[in-house]
Every structure is written in C-alpha cells, then in structure tokens.
User: Fold this.
Amino acid sequence: MNKGKFISFEGIEGVGKSTTIKKIQNYLQEKGIEVCCTREPGGTEFGESIRNILLDNNTNITAESESLLLFSIRNQHINEIIIPNLDKGTWVLCDRYIDASIAYQGYGKKVSLEKINLLIENFTEKIIPDLTIFFDLSYELAMKRFPKTKSKDRFENLSDKFFDDVYNGYLKIASSNANRVKKVDSKLPLEDVCTQIINEVSKLLK
Ligand code: TYD
Assistant:
C-alpha cells in the first residue's frame, strides 16, 4: 500500500486555518482518500492535556521549557497518530507542526534556532511534511479578523512586536524551504484561498 501524504498548515492567529482545513478534508474525501485531521499542540490525549497548560494565562514558564513541552507533545503525536496513519495510506492534515516552533519559539521568543533544529532533528522521527501551506496574512490584517468578544489565551495575549516577528519568521521559513512550503495569499476571500490550496494539494495526487 502507498503511504499517505502529510500536509501541515501554518500561519499566525486569525488567518482562517481551521475552516480551510475542513474544506481540504472534504475535497480529498470526495476523491476517495482517507483523511485524518489533527492539530498541534494536541492531537493525542496526552497532547491535549498539555495544550491546556500551554494556553492557560496562569502558566508561567520559560520559552525553552515551552519549546520542550511542544516537542514532547509532537513526539507523542508523531508516534501515536501521524506515523500509524501515514503507514496505512491515510493522508494526515495537521494544523501547525515544526514550522510553528521555528516561527513562534525561535523568531518570536528568541529561542536559538540551533536548539530548535536540534529538537527537530532528534525528536521528530524524520517526519517532514510532503507539503506545508503557509497562510500569508500580515499581523495587522489578521488582527482585524480576530473576534472582539473572544477571550485571549496565553499566546494571543503576546505583543504586536511578537506577532510581527513570528510573521516575518514564517516568511523566512517559506523562502528557505520553497519546495515544501507554499504561500497562500490569505487576504483573498475564503473560496479563493481554498482554490489556491487545492491547486497545491492536487499536485500530490499525481
Ligand atoms: P492553535 O491551535 O493554532 O491556536 P488557535 O486554535 O487558538 O488558533 O495553536 C495554539 C497556539 O500554540 C498558537 O498561538 C501557536 C502556538 N504554538 C507555538 O507557539 N509553537 C508550536 O510549535 C505550536 C504547534 C503552536
């Protein structure tokens, strides 16, 4: 049996990732492909419980401790969910993956990229996405979309400068991994965003 494909979705908050992922799931299922949708931080029972701690505004931890927790969640997720699904031919759509650690903890919180790369090299079982979709939307525009009534978690409460650094980090990741990471213009209406993604995803069907 052919292995499934692994697609990750990245971008700052408020870019419309979750809604779009559901549409891509439908598109693939209509083609007869088995799909597993999952997310980070989370994806396993262990990961979801640590996610709650990570997003809790009362949690007070260093950026390095946070990075280690994220990679602990990721390692469990890879072994429990991602690899078994890919091995049985199921495609895995993952809301955030390694690039989020480079963008948020690295470029955003200034954990050295060398340390993060060390974690990627040693604790991700060499599982790199076949395709990464980067929702390209500046922080300024993303903020306008953030629901005014929604209460903010520990990440969403970080400063404008932090999110600007994260966004610029994503741009650097996209340009240095141009074969894997495809930028999608997320200023456009949702339908157009989906069309751009389907265009990239359909290349994996060949
Ligand atoms: P996400 O589930 O995308 O949040 P939401 O559903 O509120 O949009 O991710 C939760 C937060 O975790 C998000 O602010 C980004 C952060 N994060 C990191 O900082 N590093 C990582 O490696 C991952 C996977 C997420």
